[in-house]
Every structure is written in structure tokens, then in C-alpha cells.
Design brief:
Elements (H helix, E strand, L loop, with lengths): L2 E10 L1 H8 L6 H16 L10 E12 L2 E6 L7 H15 L2 E4 L2 H16 L4 H4 L21 E3 H5 L10 H7 L13 H6 L3 H25 L5 H18 L2 H11 L2
Parallel strand pairs: 1-4, 4-5
Antiparallel strand pairs: 1-2, 2-3
Helix pairs in contact: 7-9, 9-10
Length: 258
Amino acid sequence: MNIFVFDIETVPDVAAGRRLYDLDDLDDKNVGRVMFHKRAEESGGSEFLRHHLHRIVAISVVLRTPDRFKVWTLGDPDSPEDEILQRFFDGIDRFTPTLVSWNGSGFDLPVIHYRSLIHGIQAPRYWDTGGDDKNFKWNNYLSRYHERHTDVMDVLAGYQPRAAAKLDQVATLLGFPGKMGMSGAKVWDNYLDGDIAGIRNYCETDVLNTYLVYQRFELIRGHLSHAQFDAVCEQVRTELASEDKPHLNEFLENWQGD
């Protein structure tokens, strides 16, 4: 089975903000401020923007096939959003994987849907619900209760929003590194500072945490034995060590220190 774990990082879609709120005279930073302020007024305090007002700046993935494990961020640091999205769907077309996420049903995929709509990204395999492949009628990427996309947070919460948990806390409870100094709330500031590399590195550590929590989920539902789970963890350690990248080495140090 091919597993494709993914996580996105986003910033305010300032082009949308200018169009919707007539803000042509403001720079990106101040357009963002207006968007956050309007959202706080609308929601009663939360500045977290609605899904259609996010722009994707990074999609990181872990791909595991029967003979391969790899973690990386799609495209190059200067790749435009439409290229990043196309690469995401190209991976689905090529591998027909099980998509795995943490809150992907609630955030990542709806954002991907809106951004694909804006850019006109075609992804017939992803959107198929049985019209092209009859197997997809009973197990597709869009149904909340199908496994072809497994939102680990949603499943563990019993599909109850009030039981949802943060990835950082669950990963930490399981002895995995969790967050390491950065969070989604800091992505906009880092983006304004030009730190795309830092955002991409952070996204990769998030997707690694998701992959490891998913493997723990595979253990409790009997798809892995304890010995097989230990072997999966050892494979991750070996592969990350061979990459010898600072953020992955830090991930290993935090993991091995538990």
C-alpha cells in the first residue's frame, strides 16, 4: 500500500483581500492586518481566516511505498502556488495512495479545493467518486468515512469536533518531537521576513509527526505488530539521518531524547 501523508502551510491571500475589501493602496502586511481584523470582528475574536482566504505556500509530504520512504516539500522555494498544487495531484494520479492528514478534512483539503478552483487545477482521480473507477464509489478521497483519505485526528476523535486534539500534544504524548519552536501562527511573520525555507522545514517536521502518529494508529487497529511498528520507527530514523539536514537532525535529537 502506498501512503501519502501531507500537510500545508498558508498565508493570507492578500490579492483576495485587496479585491474583496478595496485595499489597493496598502502593502501586503497591512492588507493582512485588515483581513485578520475583519475576521476577528466577524467571528467574535478569532483572527483565523476562512478557508477561501488562505494561500498555500508549502505542501510537505511523506511518501511510503513498499520499497521507499521519503519526506520532502513539493516544488522549489520560489515555485508558484499552482505548480505546488499540480505536483500534489500528480502524486495522487501516479500512486493512488492512501492520503493521511491531521485535520485534513477540516482545513487542508478544503483550502486545497478552493485554491484548485481559483487556479483551474484538474485532478480527475482525486475527485472521482465512482464515475470513472467503480472501486471509488465505496472508498474515495472525498467521503469523511472512507479510508482512502484518513484524517487521523477526525478518526481518533470519533468524528466529534469537541474531542479533537492538537497534533503537537498528541505527538508529544507519544514520545515524538511535536513542535520545535515554530507553529502555524508564526508562518505569516516568517513569510513577510522572507523565510520560506524555515516554513518548508517546519512543514516537513509537522508531516513527520503526522506520519508517526498514523503508524501508532495502525498499531492499535492491528495493522502493525509491535515489532513492525518499531521497525517503521527505525526506518524513519535511518532515512532522516541519511539526509543530514539541520531541521531533520533536530527532529531526531528531540525524538531520541525522549
